[in-house]
Design goal:
There is one protein chain. The protein is of the alpha/beta class and about 290 residues long. The chain folds into 2 domains: about 10-100 and about 175-285, Metal-dependent hydrolases (TIM Barrel, Alpha-Beta Barrel), CATH 3.20.20; about 105-165, DNA polymerase, domain 1. The protein is about 40% helix and about 15% strand. It contains 10 helices and 8 strands. The strands form 2 sheets. It has a 5-stranded mixed beta sheet. It has a 3-stranded parallel beta sheet with strand order 1-2-3, covered by helices on one side. Strand 2, helix 2 and strand 3 (about 65) form a beta-alpha-beta unit. Helix 1 packs parallel to helix 2 and helix 6 packs across helix 7 (about 155-165). The longest helix is centred in the middle third of the chain and has 14 residues, at about 105-115. The chain is globular and about 55 Å long. The two termini are about 25 Å apart. The structure holds adenosine monophosphate and manganese (II) ion (3 copies). The site of one manganese (II) ion has 5 residues, from loops.
Amino acid sequence: MTPTNILNADLHCHSVVSDGTLTPEALAERAKTNGVELWALTDHDEIGGQQRAAAAARAQGLRYLTGAEISVTFAGETVHIVGLGFDADDAALQQGLRQTRGGREQRAMEMAEGLAKVGIKGAFEGARKFVGNPELMSRTHFARFLVESGVCSETHEVFRKYLTEGKPGYVEHRWASLHDAVTWITQAQGVAVIAHPGRYKFTPNEEYALFTEFKAHGGQAVEVVTGSHTAQEYVKYAETAKEFGLAASRGSDFHSPDESRIDLGTLPFLPGDLTPVWDLLADRIQ
Ligand code: AMP
Ligand code: MN
Ligand code: MN
Ligand code: MN
């Protein structure tokens, strides 16, 4: 029998419904072309693209899991929790996501004010042109505007110079609590996954607290092989998954053919000694 780890699953990516540049249909087609066997669309704080993604997956003959990436504030930092395989019609999940999206427009106006102070005018309207979903203005849309207007040559540079902590366009924001995000997902029959743990600027103690509390709230998995991790981080978080008894997930975090380093379905397979998250979700695959 082929071990279930040897599966081209891509369970993390973004469409125009959040801060990606492709439609759910174009992503499904690209996933299929790249050999993806199990796919999930995980837009930020939003499940408005789920029906389209599931239908497009079906049309391509791709297996599909519902998905979302929820913004959480933990120990003063933003942490992302991916939900997989939930019931997208669940009312409490929908309400929780609506509430999490709620502060984004105000935040975007404050970001634009910060940028105006350093001479970058019209950033709110400029970013808005790149937005596919008016409820989901993100830093990525500002980054695209600053590239378009020639302030920076690529989006990573915009983040480094303007959109991260301490920089003119950065606005402190309070997202959902870890408890609430995990509960919304699990009560809707999904599995909660810590997204790209290697990206957070936590001390070892804070990271330990994140994993411990996540597990106590009912979280069951962690991204090990992700477009945000180095090869050393695959090894490190494979160990963490085993230490905490968590299943492992795999996803590119693909946003755009022009911006993303890692394409859909192109990462290495999960290490063989981990439990893949899809083993927990066999009855949720569409
Ligand atoms: P937001 O939810 O509005 O804070 O935006 C977060 C998004 O910004 C992430 O999901 C990434 O798509 C993008 N992002 C964050 N940091 C960077 C970076 N250094 N370079 C490029 N994109 C980034
Ligand atoms: Mn994003
Ligand atoms: Mn993320
Ligand atoms: Mn993401």
